[in-house]
Amino acid sequence: MATPHIACEPGDIAPLVIMPGDPKRAERIAKTRMKGARLVSDVRGIGAWTGTVDGVAMTAMASGMGVPSVSIYATELYSQFGVKRICRVGTCGGISKQVAVRDVIVASSAHTNSSVSTIDIPGVTLSLAASFDMLRGAVDQARGTGARVHVGSVYTSDFFYSSRMDIVPALDKLGTLGVEMEAAGLYACAMAAGAEALAVLTVSDHLFDGSGDLTSDERETLFEGALEAAIAGLKA
């Protein structure tokens, strides 16, 4: 059942998918958190590893960067491989003064400047939101560890480098916790497929408070809290 972007057999992809943006992070999850992980697809360097996590079958597969990329993989996983739940586990920039670098954000909804919120129904802006059961499972797990965890909206931007910083104070005023590039696309795909999705994010830098950014190495290693919350959300 190969698609243009995923080349494997029926049953090779588990119904539950952990989806970081970075292919190296997907491989790291497979090697350090899964048992019996095997590479089932590697088209364009986007590896998909399937194994078990705490006895539950899961696949770790990267999304790449941005709404277009995550939308390709999520659509094919939901529509062609029987995937029921996808949890994005990644990083974001902090917006709210309530959050700090290294905190965990569980995105209950995603604002966006992408057309995914308006393209399907002319004249209507869709509300792009997470699955409640996944959200509850992730939040319960994260708060149970004593970690600094925040629940609320994020902003999914189509642009990593943008001159439109003037909109950030308005987003902050509305309670937006952070900015990233994929959650809204994933939530839109889940809605279209009648499936479920969630994004659990580690704050890697902050737009306002001047705290130190995570290095590329730290981004690889300091995401265990978000990963465990994501796993709990998938299993909820």
TrEMBL record:
One example of a Gene Ontology biological process annotation: purine nucleoside catabolic process
The protein's matches in InterPro entries, at most eight in alphabetical order, are given as: DeoD-type, Nucleoside_phosphorylase_d, Nucleoside_phosphorylase_sf
Q: Which UniProt keywords apply?
A: Glycosyltransferase, Transferase
- MF terms per GO, please? purine-nucleoside phosphorylase activity; uridine phosphorylase activity
Pfam families recorded for this chain?
PNP_UDP_1
- Domain Nucleoside phosphorylase: residue ranges: 16-229
Q: What is its EC number?
A: 2.4.2.3
Keyword Transferase: yes or no?
yes
Please state what the protein is called. Answer: Uridine phosphorylase
The record lists the organism as Tessaracoccus flavescens
